[in-house]
Amino acid sequence: MPELEVRGVELRWFERGSGHPVLLLHETAVASAAWLPLAEDLGPHARAIGFDRRAWGASGVPDGYARTTVEEQAEDAAALLEALEATPALVCGAGLGAVVALELLLGRRALVASAVLIEPPLLMLLPEATDQFAADRQLLESAAPDGVEGVVDLYLRGRLLALGPGVERLPDPLTEPARERPRSVLAELGATSAWRRPVSSLSGAERRSLIVTCSGTPPLLRAAADQLDRRLARSERAELDGRGPPQLDSARGLAGLIRGELDHAAAAGDQGTALEQDG
């Protein structure tokens, strides 16, 4: 995998296909390999770029790495897009990666054509999730005597219903990176809830976005997706079949949605060029 140094961290990525760039941002507990089925299904229709976010897969781990933010993750992604001259890109993320994609959509508009947000875990939009966050904190405290590995095991078994909703649907082979780098899981646990972007800014989105869930999406994640759709300007909702995460269980259907977004972006670009010529 090629590599790029970003603020002292070596980031590694893969590319498949050619055409309009699609940046793939993986969720917590897996690496970019989770995107390979989708990248293959996109085929020649897109230049799929899947990168291992900092502290995952083949990418480096900063010294003393204990915490990250949505903003830090977005800056890594932005640096990679610029270095690869892959802008404006469709940014597609799952889990925490979806929130990073949303941060890029809102904060780095020149780099982004549109976004596909898969099960974004924005549970802070749900008043009813407050009690579940409190319950998760109690579970984390109870697991503390077992060390970092005990906390990660709790997370991967899907016991943290607010901090890790639906994680148990990820296949064990894909979550091996979480077993190998348990501190990377801990560094990301509070990233979404600590996101600093005001909720009010969602109404000012200037780029299209598609918010994706599936028939197996946990209720809290589905409710959060619905709330985000109500608040985020220029967004649409899409539902796929499948019990597991859409990017794995419904990769072909998700690839179709992405191709549709690429077609829409191409049509909008052609229209903009025609308007410029008429002017």
Explain what the structure shows.
The protein has 279 residues and is of the alpha/beta class. The protein has a single domain (3-127, 196-278), classed as Alpha/Beta hydrolase fold, catalytic domain (Rossmann fold, 3-Layer(aba) Sandwich). Helix content is 41%, strand content 18%. An eight-stranded mixed β-sheet has the order 1-2-4-3-5-6-7-8, sandwiched between helices. Strand 1 (3-6) and strand 2 (9-16) form a beta hairpin. Helix 5 packs across helix 7. The termini are far apart. Mean pLDDT is 94; it is low at 271-279.
Unreliable spans are 271-279
Structural class: alpha/beta
What count of structural domains?
1
Through-space gap between termini: 45 Å
CATH topology name, in short, is Rossmann fold
CA-based shape: globular
CATH class: Alpha Beta
Largest sheet: spatial strand order: 1-2-4-3-5-6-7-8
Number of helices: 10
Q: Which oligomerization state do the chains in this entry correspond to?
A: single chain
Largest sheet: 8 strands, mixed
User: Percent range for helical residues?
Assistant: 40-55%
Number of strands: 8
Query: Can you name the CATH architecture?
Result: 3-Layer(aba) Sandwich
Mean of pLDDT? 94
CATH H-level superfamily title: Alpha/Beta hydrolase fold, catalytic domain
- % residues in beta strands: 15-25%
Rg (C-alpha, Å): 18 Å
Give me the strand/helix succession: EEEHEHEHEHHHHEHEHH
Give the helix/strand layout.
Blueprint: E1 3-6, E2 9-16, E3 20-25, H1 36-42, E4 46-52, H2 70-83, E5 89-94, H3 96-107, E6 112-118, H4 130-143, H5 147-156, H6 176-180, H7 182-188, E7 208-214, H8 219-231, E8 235-240, H9 246-249, H10 251-278
Parallel strand pairs: 3-4, 3-5, 5-6, 6-7, 7-8
Antiparallel strand pairs: 1-2, 2-4
